[in-house]
């Protein structure tokens, strides 16, 4: 009886890239929407033709309004998220490393986390004014709390065996944090960033719907008040594309920082 070689499975459950599948899903959904609206199966009062939405994008680009609305939104998201995420990672690491900080800040974070941040927007307007300050503050707070929770959870989940091994080799406390704790917590931190930035995009739209002349949120609010479905869906597509771009960028950062997992 001949022996059959066993296939090597050292790769474990490492995911394989299938980028064309996601693109194909989008193409199929858009094609179905186009066919349904053109045939009359889907009412034009509920869903515009994807081709009309595409034409709206072309008109926005030719008129220059696309970047007029897009640039302020990207600036607000970048500034607000940078403040919230940097503070969140710092506080989360401190909570994970120091017991006194954990005892003092976890109850505070637990009290702030479930508060709907959109409900605080009027308060931020009173504190920081209706200009950019209130928008930055809302996005920063909205990204801060989930980042804190994800970060100290990731620090807590670092394999304690690796820490004890580092101690047995005589590594200093700072070296253990830098070479074992931070790299070990990085997958959880980056996963938390996906959620934090998604929340940041939601809060960006809410902030721009109140007192913003330009921005994706202001554009969607104006289109909705006029019941202009083509422009409304164009704004929604902008947000979807922004979410995909953010997720892709985080994926690239993961590949660079987490090469040690391969």
Structural class assignment: mainly alpha
The total of helices stands at 10
Q: Name the overall outline.
A: flat
Query: Structurally, how many domains make up the residues?
Result: 1
Task: Extract low-pLDDT stretches.
Answer: none
CATH topology: MetI-like fold
Q: In CATH, what is the class?
A: Mainly Alpha
Number of E-state strands: 0
Fraction in beta strands: under 5%
Detailed description of the structure:
The protein is mainly alpha-helical and 262 residues long. It has a single domain, classed as MetI-like (MetI-like fold, Orthogonal Bundle). Helices cover 76% and strands 0% of the residues. The protein is built from ten helices and no strands. It has helices spanning 19-39, 50-63, 65-97, 99-112, 121-128, 132-156, 160-168, 173-208, 216-225, 229-257. Helix 7 runs antiparallel to helix 8. The radius of gyration is 23 Å and the shape is flat. The two termini are 37 Å apart. The model has no long low-confidence stretch (mean pLDDT 86).
């Amino acid at each position: 009886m001949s022996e059959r070689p066993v296939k090597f499975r050292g790769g474990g459950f490492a995911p394989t890239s299938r980028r064309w599948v996601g693109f194909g899903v989008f193409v199929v959904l858009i094609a179905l929407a186009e066919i349904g609206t053109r045939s009359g199966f889907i009412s034009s009062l509920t869903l515009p033709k994807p081709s009309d939405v595409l034409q709206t994008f072309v008109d926005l680009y030719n008129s220059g309004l696309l970047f007029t609305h897009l640039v302020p939104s990207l600036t607000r998201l970048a500034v607000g998220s940078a403040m919230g995420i940097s503070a969140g990672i710092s506080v989360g690491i401190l909570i994970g490393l120091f017991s006194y900080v954990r005892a003092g800040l976890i109850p505070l974070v637990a009290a702030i986390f479930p508060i709907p941040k959109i409900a605080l927007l009027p308060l931020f307007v009173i504190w920081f004014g209706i200009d950019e300050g209130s928008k930055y503050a809302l996005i920063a707070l909205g990204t801060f709390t989930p980042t804190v929770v994800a970060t100290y959870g990731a620090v807590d989940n670092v394999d304690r065996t690796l820490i004890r091994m580092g101690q047995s080799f005589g590594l200093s406390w700072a070296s253990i944090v830098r070479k074992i704790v931070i790299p070990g917590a990085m997958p959880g931190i980056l996963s938390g960033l996906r959620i934090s930035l998604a929340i940041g995009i939601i809060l960006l739209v809410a902030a721009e719907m109140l007192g913003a002349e330009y921005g994706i949120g202001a554009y969607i609010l104006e289109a909705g008040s006029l019941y202009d479905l083509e422009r409304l869906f164009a704004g929604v597509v902008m947000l979807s594309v922004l979410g995909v771009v953010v997720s892709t960028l985080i994926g690239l950062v993961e590949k660079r920082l987490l090469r040690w997992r391969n």
